[in-house]
């Protein structure tokens, strides 16, 4: 969802994205970009993330997620609008 120039999206990242430091890379990259949100592994082998911040920065993060860390092989990213979690540090969450 976009409000006041902010954008919040939920992204499901598919491919070889577990066991390749994808979550750690996501935390580092999103933090460097100044984004709010979280990232977690899912039992189905995907990685799920919520990114919130300035619309252009969220779009840059999504583009970076298409590459991911060096050992990752991203085959697709499914993105949908999400509620904005507000301005809080980006975090890694437990697997669901």
UniProtKB/TrEMBL annotation:
It catalyses: an acyl phosphate + H2O = a carboxylate + phosphate + H(+). Belongs to the acylphosphatase family. Pfam families: Acylphosphatase. Coiled coil: none annotated. This is acylphosphatase. PANTHER family: ACYLPHOSPHATASE. The lineage of its organism: Bacteria, Pseudomonadati, Pseudomonadota, Alphaproteobacteria, Rhodospirillales. The active site is at residues 23, 41. Gene3D superfamilies: 3.30.70.100. Its EC number is 3.6.1.7. GO terms for molecular function: acylphosphatase activity. Keywords: Hydrolase.
